[in-house]
Amino acid sequence: MSRGPRFVAGWWIAALLGPRVALAAVQAPTDPDSARRVYAALVAADSFDSRAVFRLARLTPRAAEALRLYRRYTQLEPDDPWGHMALGDALARAGRYHEGLASYAVAERLAPGERDVAVGRARLHARAGRTDAAVAAYERWLAHHEDDAEAWRELGRELMRAGRARGAASAFERSLALEPDGVTGRRLTLARAASLPAIDPHATWSRDSDGNTALGFGGELDISPEDRLRWGVSLRRVGLADGLNTASLLGVGVRARWRPRATVSVRAALDAERLESSATADPARVRPALDARVSVRAPGGGPSLDIQTQSAVLSAGPALLASQVRRTEAALRLDLPLRPLRLRAGARGAAVSGGGLTNYRSWLSGGAAIPVADGIEMVGLYHRLSYRDSTSAGYFAPRLAEVLEVGSYVEVEPGGWLLALDVGAGAQRTAPHGQLMGDWKPALRLWGLTQVTLSPGRNLRLEVEAYDTQVAPLAATTGAWRYLSTSLGLRLAL
Known about the structure:
It is a single chain. The protein is built from 13 helices and 17 strands. The protein is of the alpha+beta class. It has a 17-stranded antiparallel sheet that branches. α5 packs antiparallel against α6 and α8 packs antiparallel against α9.
């Protein structure tokens, strides 16, 4: 391919007159490819030409080569803080955030109080997914530079990522007061809506292969008394039928969500449930139900850990509800990045009590996920379920059940709506108590969610869940169990 007369002229001038004279004699082309070739010729002629090295680093598309050139520039110009900042940004793009922060520390020693250093370091934290550190960096700068509209705007964006809608709204307001901007105005509207009290009415329907159907209605009201906390109350009523008997569940409870840090989320729900079934002559009873979960996510796509505990009466149908079977479970899930994979492991242990007897259930799972695109991953998993004892209380309790599956998780947000889909297909086999392991049979599962933003603070969502499996997430009622449920909800900021 011909390199063109400008490149040839630049190279010869560099060779004969020296790179700095050549740069003055030959103006670099505006075309990036041609300019890159000119600066490459200057660097080839004189590797000590720091300006040419820096310009070539900025024009080089290959990350490793750009990083090498920025390192070379900081060697040639060790007292230039902007060179160390450029090196820090290049290191961050390569995923080497700690080294990037070290470069910014050098820049700060050379130029204390310089805005580009302070804001650049905050942006590096944000790019690394270190939201709390980014917020702290922006707040340190803005404590002494309250007229920086751009920094207020970027602080608001990071506060939204941290789940701190009130603080984000305040930051966006400060930015708009200094510098009117349409995009910031829309973000302010979203932040205000997210911080308002909200109601969440919803309706659910489900049916399984044993003929159990459930139709429920309910709602939640929650408020945000402070930036990191939301709490509220809930009410729901579920009617159940199996063609022979009917049952009902009326629940009243409290809910709380707390984000002490951007990487830590705590959720808890406590309900009082009134349970009644025509399959028993016993009067209606009130039983407590608890669900608590702690999620920890390392920044930058690092490891994650989920710990959950639940305790509730199984209510898949009137017959099971009449047995007053309670499941009390603790669960743990670990997600560990090991490029190009993400290793996943989970464990659950539960005590299932009813009729004066207590059974024990264990669930182990493990596998790996491979990211194939932004928001899309392929997953391969193994599940192992076992019950210590058989039972006649109305739930399926095999000695051992195994599932091998492959699946895919997709999450996209085109425009004003969200689509999430989790699909798995594979094979399963079961060994009842006192029997040998059965043959492999198909197993399927599906979960999908679509959410449409009607206006700021008003979202309509539809959720669908389906199973064809012997290994149910909570408890199946028979060995060949199929299940379908749908939920429709509307969240309204008040």
